[in-house]
Amino acid sequence: MSKRWYQENKRDPWRRQAKSKGYRARSAYKLLQIQEKFRIIKKGNNILDIGCHPGGWTQVSVELVEDTGKVIGVDLLMTSSIDGAEIIMGDITESSTIERISEIMENNEFDVVISDISPRLTGRYDTDQAISLELSTMSLDTAFNQLKVGGNFITKIFQGRGVEGLVESAKRRFKNVNRYTPTASRTASSETYLICQNRLLNPRKGSGNSAIEEVKIHLENIGIITENGMNAEDETVVGFRKYKKGKNG
Ligand SMILES: C[S@@+](CC[C@H](N)C(=O)[O-])C[C@H]1O[C@@H](n2cnc3c(N)ncnc32)[C@H](O)[C@@H]1O
Predict the structure, then answer these.
(1) For labelling alongside 11, which of 132, 184, 230, 237 has CA 20 to 30 A away?
(2) d(Cα 231, Cα 66) in Å, to the nearest integer?
C-alpha cells in the first residue's frame, strides 16, 4: 500500500468502513445516514440513482429494497455492474437517457429518486457551485416527472448563491423538504442534501413550467443572471449561463 493510501485511510474512518463492507465509495454511508434519519427507501421500492458512479448508493439501494424493487443507476461514466441493479451509461439531461429509463421501467413510476450528482470540479468554487446548482435543479425536474405521487427525492447541493431558489422549487413540488448533512460528509465540504418527501400531485399554485425556469428567475431576481444590459466583457458563461464577473471572480 502507498504511504498516501495508508494516511488517508487512517484519517478517514468512512473510507475504511466502506472498504471493509465492500462498498465502492465512502459516500454509501451518506445515504445510509439519510436513510436512518428519514426512512426514504422501503422494501420493494423502485429507485432511480442519478449520478451513480462508482456505485455506492446503488449498492445501498439494492440492499434496502431487498431484491424486490427495481434499481436503476445512471451516470456519464461507465459503472461496473451491480447485482440486482440495471446500470445505464448516459447523460441524465438528455432525452435519449430518459427514454432508456422508461423502456426499462416499462412506463412504471419510481418510488424514490436519489441524486448525488456533481460536476467534474474545476476548483473554482463559484463555477463549481453554479454548475452543481443547475445539475441538481435538472435532477429535481427529472425526479418530479419520474416519481409517483407520494414519492421521495434526495439531491446533493453545494451551499451558495441561488440555492434558496432550488429549495423553493422543491417546496412547490413536495410536501416536506428538509436540509440534512450526514456526518459522513467531509467536515470541510459545503455539501448538504435536500430531502424531499411526498411528491405532490401537481406543483403548487404560482409555479413555473419547470424548476429550471423558476431557479433562473430567482437568479435574475437576486442579480446573478443578467439577460441583457451588461457589457459582454463583464460576463462569463458557467452553469446557469451568464454570471456577472466581479464578485464571482
Ligand atoms: C459524487 S459522484 C456519485 C457517487 C455515488 N453516489 C456513489 O455512491 O458511488 C457524482 C457523479 O455524478 C455524475 N454526473 C455528473 N453529471 C452527470 C450527468 N449530466 N448525467 C449523469 N451523471 C452525471 C458524475 O459522473 C459522477 O460520477
Answers:
(1) 132
(2) 57
- Residue to mutate (ligand 1; options 47, 52, 78, 97; most atoms within 8 A of CB): 52
Give φ, ψ of 61 to 5 degrees.
-60, -45
Give the sign of the dihedral formed by CA 174, CA 221, CA 124, CA 189: negative
Assign domain 26-204 to its CATH architecture: 3-Layer(aba) Sandwich (3.40)
In whole angstroms, what is the distance from residue 31 CA to residue 152 CA? 13
Q: What pLDDT tens digit does each residue of the chain (249 aa) get?
A: 456 655 655 678 888 889 989 999 999 999 999 999 999 999 999 999 999 999 999 999 999 999 789 999 999 999 999 999 999 999 999 999 999 999 999 979 999 999 999 998 888 888 899 999 999 999 999 999 999 999 999 999 999 999 999 999 999 999 999 999 999 987 777 899 999 999 999 999 988 899 999 999 999 999 887 554 333 444 444 566 444 444 433
The CA dihedral of 242, 248, 163, 31, to the nearest 10 degrees, is 110
Cα of 73 to ligand 1 centre, how many Å? 10
The residue from 30, 156, 216, 242 that is catalytic is 156
Q: Whose Cα sits closest to atom 24 in ligand 1?
A: 51
Nearest CA to ligand 1 atom 27: 53
Whole-structure pTM value? 0.90
Ligand 1 midpoint to CA 245 (Å) = 28
